[in-house]
Design brief:
heterotrimer, A mainly alpha (280), B mainly alpha (336), C alpha/beta (325), B: 336 residues, mainly alpha, 15 helices, 0% strand, C: 325 residues, alpha/beta, 8-stranded mixed sheet, 4-stranded antiparallel sheet, 12 helices, 12 strands, 35% helix
């Protein structure tokens, strides 16, 4: 564990990414305690609507008088929980499928990989939009749609690793001493395939936050009065250009958070895959 | 080379077939009664039954699939519940606007991105490189819709330099439709004020759409250049006195862009997805805003027709990418 | 008659993560007109850096700390990059690289690459445009014929991976001679080839030197090649010239302990598999005295204390060893 950490520590952008991710995580967990006006998740104070940034309201207030700074902090919780749910669901679907397809071979494997190809044949956003619309538009269906469109990325990675490892010498040796398939796959192949999966998951978290924000913006995700970042930007449009702070700060929150995940994911990828010489 | 292309087409067919199956299932199977879904909430039982017969929904499912495939093959993609016109007609009318936007964004991403990537690679570990690396990281972390709004806020609302939305100003009359492309039609009609207006409207949407691709291409070109510069033949070319500019922009570049070409192909997915959002924000009359409209009105036929269209386009782009790879590196062509 | 190439006291160091590494520490060599000088040393002794210094293509982190490189009476170290690129490389100094497979750009036709060189460095012939191009093609085809590359007319239209190793090396020799330089530097051009092909290339090189009237600087780690091809010899150890002189004289009577040890190890002469005990001093930490002293059988206390000056052996060779001063 620690040699990996030492290598990561030398990579400045990756450390920055880690710092951002930890920061956002803490904000998400301790949100209500950190926000100056935690009740603004739902309450409205029309008397102080659309006020510019000030000492009392660092990011200004929105059209219902709610403190945007607090709502951005509270929004972190929603963004991260969506991202974590989607990515872990996608992993739960995609990783086992990849293991099966890679280890078994034959028509089952072909079938799984063809389905993967079909799902990957469409950009994720379009597919998620189509699916979310077929089910009833809500946050849950959006998350389900996103999971159902993201699992192929994991399947592809795990499939490639499993195929590679299945034909390796040590698996032959394990088979030779009579180890069962299940044991081989879960105790020996899976741990080796885990590293690229973790890299993909990290980048996937950032990507999901972006796509979820788009869905929120289009009205296919979170519903008012939730402090969702994408939703806030959508709501802000009617009040531009006067209330520039309304759109700017939630967007910056998205930018910084996603950047954090991307930087961290890049750093992890550099460690995991040193053979593909990443010219840094 | 023909063999190469044909072979690629063959490989793509199973995915496309799968796509047909998936879209068919989604339109027929997901809602428990598609006829009722198509008729809407206020329909009477007789209207629903008529719809059912009209769409052949009372036939066995595989027969429905075959007729579906037949319809798709003849470009009959159903009727939009919203516009009450054939979806195929709607798409044909809106396609030029989307193509214009997409290719402008692609052009910006490639023709600005590749040179910037080369510059970054050459100035490795000095400030131009650092600046460009920061840019390429931020470029893919930005939410496109937010960036669009920020651009609108600044260039349109604050400075008033560029128009807020649309393909043409509301006061300007559209030129007679010959190619379907506004800029081309206006030029043909000799209306250069319309051309200027159309180009001004193109700036913000194209910039927004190009950002993600620009960042990615800078990043991958930079990596490609750094890799190539380590190669022995670069040392040899320097030893033989190749002129620096030609060395970099002809001989090094050709070797460095393999990864970039892959990215350009993959970029299309982003351009299509991003196009949806950008068109919605800028009121751009293309397929993206058509899709958003279909989502908001629950227009199922349109959604699925668009999905199918995108799948085909994506497959076509992948083949073209492979072809480009083969042309760049003759060794690949021989391996087929 | 001034020598074509004369290197005096060349010192080159390179900045690394672990500190400043002295790669070349007082290198000297002399190449007389029309002769072949072999530069011999182990891997890592600084041969590549020497070539790069002469041609002015050192990496960014490297600096020339001292010395001169006299080429036909001019100090190359004083030339600017533009002067070197426009007036020296290919037109006056040709280059034959080590690995023919890696040296050629894989995605361009061989002809394109060679014509690129000729376009900027070929001796002026008063022609322009298409006529000039045709003249260049003609000269290249003629050279390829001389190098015995099969199908010289169509060869220019092919890609590097379509040739065998030996053929590629012939292409590169042709490229080196294309612009009629007076000096050609060859960086271990036969190392990547099999023994038979190696022999053919060496024969070819000897013929070409006489035929084209060039002077050849031939870098190698193989004494056998030196014996077969070269007129003069220069032995390098840890970035210093330790012995230099006529080949036959040195091979018959090697003076410097390192030269003697190297020759003793050569498969043709060795009776055991033993190499030279010890290892080359790290360029990051140079000992104060003679660099070979820690491994030298004849070493005395004086050797470890101070750098030995240049002396002359009975064979006529210049030797850097206290035994000959």
């Amino acid at each position: 564990m620690s040699p990996i950490f030492r290598k990561l520590a030398r990579d400045l952008p990756a450390m920055l990414g880690l710092a951002i991710v930890v920061f956002v995580l803490l904000i998400a967990i301790f949100g209500p305690l950190l926000a100056p006006y935690p009740e603004d998740a739902a309450a409205s104070h029309l008397a102080r609507r659309l006020k510019p940034p000030s000492a009392a309201f660092p990011f200004g207030t929105d059209n219902l008088g709610r403190d945007i700074f607090s709502r951005v902090i509270l929004g972190a919780r929603g963004a991260l929980s969506i991202a974590l749910t989607v990515v872990s669901t996608a992993m739960l679907i995609g990783v086992p499928l990849g293991l099966i397809a890679g280890y078994r071979g034959g028509w089952l494997s072909e079938g799984i990989m063809r389905v993967t190809d079909v799902v990957l044949a469409i950009p994720q956003l379009i597919l998620a939009l189509a699916l979310a619309q077929l089910m009833s538009p809500s946050l849950e269906s959006a998350m389900l749609a996103l999971s159902l469109t993201y699992w192929p990325y994991f399947t592809r990675i795990v499939y490639a690793e499993t195929r590679r490892l299945s034909s390796s010498l040590f698996v032959d040796a394990l088979r030779g001493i009579g180890a069962g398939s299940g044991r081989i796959v879960f105790l020996h192949i899976l741990p080796n395939a885990l590293s690229p999966v973790i890299v993909r998951a990290t980048i996937g978290l950032g990507f999901t936050i972006l796509v979820a924000a788009v869905l929120g913006f289009l009205g296919m995700g979170a519903t008012p009065p939730a402090p969702d970042w994408g939703l806030a930007i959508a709501e802000s449009r009617t009040y531009l250009p006067r209330a520039w702070w309304y759109a700017t700060f939630p967007g910056l929150a998205i930018l910084i958070t996603v950047m954090g995940f991307n930087l961290l994911g890049d750093g992890l990828r550099d460690i995991v895959d040193p053979r593909i010489r990443r010219s840094r | 080379m023909l063999r190469f292309v044909l072979r690629r087409c063959m490989l793509v067919l199973p995915s496309l077939f799968g796509l047909l199956v998936v879209t068919f299932l989604l339109i027929r199977v997901v809602p428990s009664d598609p006829a009722m879904a198509m008729a809407g909430d206020a329909a009477t039982p007789e209207q629903i039954e008529r719809l059912r017969q009209q769409y052949g929904l009372d036939r066995p499912i595989w027969e429905q699939f075959v007729s579906y495939v037949g319809k798709v093959a003849t470009l009959d993609l159903g009727e939009s519940a919203f516009s009450r016109r054939a979806v195929a007609v709607d798409i044909a009318q809106r396609l030029p606007a989307t193509l214009t936007l997409t290719f402008c964004a692609l052009a910006i991403s490639v023709f600005v991105g590749v040179p910037l990537g080369v510059v970054a690679g050459l100035s490795h570990n000095t400030w131009p490189d650092y600046l460009l690396r920061v840019f390429s990281v931020m470029g893919i972390a930005v939410a496109a819709f937010w960036f669009a709004i920020m651009l609108q806020l600044f260039f349109s609302m604050e400075l008033g330099w560029l128009p807020l939305r649309g393909e043409l100003s509301a006061t300007i009359q559209r030129p007679p439709r010959i190619t379907g492309f506004v800029v081309a039609d206006a030029a043909i009609a000799g209306r250069f004020d319309v051309v200027a207006d159309a180009l001004r409207h193109l700036v913000l949407p194209a910039l927004t759409l190009s950002l993600g691709g620009l960042a990615t291409i800078v990043r991958f070109t930079r990596a490609g250049v750094l890799d190539t510069l380590q190669q022995d033949f670069v040392f040899y070319e320097r030893a033989m006195g190749y002129r620096r500019r030609r060395l970099v922009w002809i001989y090094v570049l050709r070797n460095s862009v393999t990864a970039t070409v892959t990215q350009i192909g993959l970029l299309f997915g982003g351009l299509i997805a991003g196009g949806v959002v950008v068109e919605a924000i800028f009121d751009w009359p293309g397929i993206g805003s058509y899709t958003v409209q279909a989502i908001l009105t629950g227009d199922r036929q349109v959604m699925l027709a668009v999905t199918l269209l995108i799948g085909v386009v994506y497959a076509g782009v992948n083949i073209l990418t492979d072809l480009a790879h083969g042309l760049l590196d003759p060794r690949l062509m021989e391996r087929g | 008659m001034i020598p074509v190439l004369s290197v005096r006291g060349l010192k080159v160091s390179i900045r690394t993560d672990e500190g400043r590494a002295e790669i070349l520490d007082d290198i000297g060599l002399t190449l007389e007109r029309g002769r072949i000088l072999g530069v011999v040393g182990e891997s890592g002794c600084g041969k590549s850096t020497l070539i790069r210094s002469i041609m002015g293509i050192l990496p960014r982190a490297a600096t020339v700390d001292g010395g001169e490189v006299w080429f036909e009476g001019e100090n190359l170290l004083a030339f600017s990059e533009a002067e070197l690129n426009d007036g020296v490389r290919s037109s006056r100094i040709g280059f034959i690289p080590q690995d023919p497979l890696l040296a050629l750009n894989p995605v361009f036709k061989v002809g394109t690459q060679m014509l690129e060189i000729m376009r900027w460095h070929a001796p002026p012939d008063g022609l322009r445009g298409a006529a000039r191009q045709r003249a260049h093609v003609g000269r290249l085809v003629g050279l390829l014929k001389r190098m015995q590359v099969p199908d010289p007319e169509t060869a220019l239209e092919r890609y590097p991976h379509q040739f065998s190793g030996g053929q590629r090396q012939r292409l590169l020799i042709a490229a080196a001679l294309a612009c009629a330089p007076g000096l050609v530097i060859a960086d271990e051009p036969t190392t990547a080839l099999d023994v038979t092909t190696q022999h053919q290339i060496l024969l070819l090189l000897r013929e070409l030197v006489a035929e084209f009237g060039i002077s050849l600087l031939f870098v190698t780690h193989d004494f056998g090649v030196v014996a077969e091809l070269c007129d003069d010899l220069c032995v390098i150890y840890a970035g210093q010239t330790v012995e230099a002189g006529p080949v036959q004289a040195i091979l018959d009577a090697p003076s410097h302990p390192y030269t003697r040890a190297l020759l003793a190890c050569h498969p043709d002469r060795a009776t055991t598999f033993l190499g030279i005990p010890g290892s080359v001093p790290s360029p990051l930490a140079r000992p104060p005295g003679c660099l070979f002293a820690p491994r030298c059988g004849d070493a005395r206390a004086l050797c470890l204390a101070a750098r030995p000056p240049q002396g002359q052996a009975r064979s006529g060779a210049e030797v850097r060893c206290v035994q000959f001063t």
